[in-house]
Amino acid sequence: MIKVEGLTRVYGSFTAVDDISFTCRPGTVTGFLGPNGAGKTTTMRVMVGLTPATRGDVTIGGLHFHDIPNPGRHVGVLLDASAQHAGRTGREVLTLGAQTMGLPMSRVDEMLELVSLDETESRRRIRNYSLGMRQRLGIAHALLGDPSVLILDEPANGLDPAGIRWMRGLLKGYADRGGTVLLSSHLLHEVEQIADEMLLIGRGKIVARGSKAELLANAGGAGTLVTALDHDQLTGALTDRGLSFVPVADGIRVDAQPVDVGRLAAERSIVLTELRTASGGLEDLFLELTADTQRDDVSAAPAPEGASL
Amino acid sequence: MTTVPGSTAMTLDISQTERVPFSRLVHVELRKMVDTRAGRWLLISIAALTALVLVIQLWVVLAQDQTVGFNDFAAGANIPMNILLPVLGVMSVTSEWSQRTAMVTFSLEPSRSRFLAAKYVGTLIMALIAVVLGLALTIGANGLYAAFSDNQVTWNLGPFQLFCFFLLYVFSMSTGFAFGMLLLNTAAAIVVYFVYSFVLPGLFELGSALMGWFKDIRPWIDFNNAQNPIIEADVTGKEWAQLLTSGLIWLVLPLLIGVWRVLRAEVK
């Protein structure tokens, strides 16, 4: 539904977005992941015509955003929840949107209810809103026209854990009904549970893409986090078996499946106190893939062999 | 939702969707001018200050037993209008940028030229409301003058006078609008407008006192000065021409550059 082809955006000598191409399909949630300043926002801004592309093309449902009549009815956009007049009430912001799109005013109440902003909150001015409330209002605004495509930039930013869970459910249900969702985040855990497809972007380039499973497979499989009563015994056994490992905080991270580590421990009668898939698998991958584009040095984490960039 | 559940069509079905009608855009832009505290108080201040100026004027002329006509009260009402209507014009544009609402506005109406046109029509409607208000207050002041003064009272209020009233307010509003687009920053645009409106006439005055040749061209390039015959509602052919040339410099040119800027500006 969203098609990005060879998109490039250059600011002077700085290339914010460097020849990226991808497609978002109806019925799926696409997670757009990358560190701050990687080019996510620029890409989304080009999508809705706020920033002209230097090269390349973006179409939504086969049309340029500019050519979509009454675009709010087709494409819901949230680029910056703070980009609202501080002196307007939340209800007024939705009313202006509903009037522009030609929607009945009842839609405003429906959306306020959907994002759990109550009557009193909706009549407060936005300068008194927390970031989380602004995000909720922004999501309400994006959904106002009952669009079939959603473009959300960092929608989970500022939401509390319960809010993030609520948003996940909302977007998942929306995609299940046939909608197309593109959402960006710089935090992996916000999107890994709902994104059917993930795009990892660093320094303007897409460095990896695919479903969570595909990404992990490409990274050489998930690691295992294991702790034992006797660590020396365990590391000895791992070395014998030829498995590579790194000691982490209070355990050992092994580049193997948990079942292999468990079998090895059983053979050698090593008592394990913990055995699980390293939850940081994707997180590590994310950091590694975007390592040279990070502001902070994460080179301590070795790059996985065979990772296709 | 425009997509049938379960369908995987890669195209949007826009056959049932009309463009946002222009009248609706104008309506929304008008609403934006009054739905914030800043906007509402600006409108209230314009009305209150205009009334205040007229009350003071009335008080002075009655106390000193001067003979004044309807035109004099109209000129009095014009003073606060001329200062504050441009501010309204400036803010209607710049608030979209300083409060960054343009991002949301353009995601609902991507055609910036339509957006600007709607905004401009909105400010013109405001100017029309200001004319009606200014007129009502002026009539009130002249009526009170008639009641309390023994002097001759004049009610010279023809269609041409009304037209001049409207023209003046449109010029004020439009100049503010143009400066707003040009600078896209509320404070800067207001400061530049006030320099244009209060400092520049002094410089023009000084220039024409010092240089003979400047004195000759001044009427053709001084837009503030060229509006004086309109305030008097007594305009000759030559004065219309001077209004046109100076207006091209101080109103049309900034409007054109401003429009060009807004159409191209990246919305941050």
Q: CATH superfamily of the largest domain in chain A, please?
A: P-loop containing nucleotide triphosphate hydrolases
Number of helices of chain A: 11
Radius of gyration of chain A: 23 Å
Q: Using the coordinates shown, work out and report the CATH topology of the largest domain in chain A.
A: Rossmann fold
Q: What's the average pLDDT of chain B?
A: 90
Please report the first level of CATH classification, the CATH class of the largest domain in chain A: Alpha Beta
Number of strands of chain B: 0
Number of strands of chain A: 13
Q: Give the integer mean of the pLDDT values of chain A.
A: 88
Name the shape of chain B in a single word. Answer: globular
Task: Write a compact overview of the structure shown.
Chain A is α/β, with parallel strands linked by helices and 309 residues long.
Descriptive overview:
The complex is a heterodimer of chains A (309) and B (268). By secondary structure, chain A is an alpha/beta fold. Chain A has 2 domains: 2-211, P-loop containing nucleotide triphosphate hydrolases (Rossmann fold, 3-Layer(aba) Sandwich); 223-277, Alpha-Beta Plaits. Chain A has helices at 40-47, 90-101, 106-114, 119-122, 131-143, 161-176, 188-191, 212-218, 231-241, 258-267, 281-289; strands at 2-11, 14-24, 29-33, 55-60, 75-78, 149-152, 180-185, 197-202, 205-210, 224-228, 245-248, 251-254, 272-277. In chain A, strand 1 (2-11) and strand 2 form a beta hairpin. Chain A is elongated, with a radius of gyration of 23 Å. The two termini of chain A are 25 Å apart. The relative contact order of chain A is 0.14. Chain B has 268 residues and is mainly α. Chain B has one domain. Chain B starts with 21 loop residues before the first helix and ends with a helix. In chain B, 36% of the residues are buried. At the A-B interface, helix 2 of A face helix 1 and helix 4 of B.
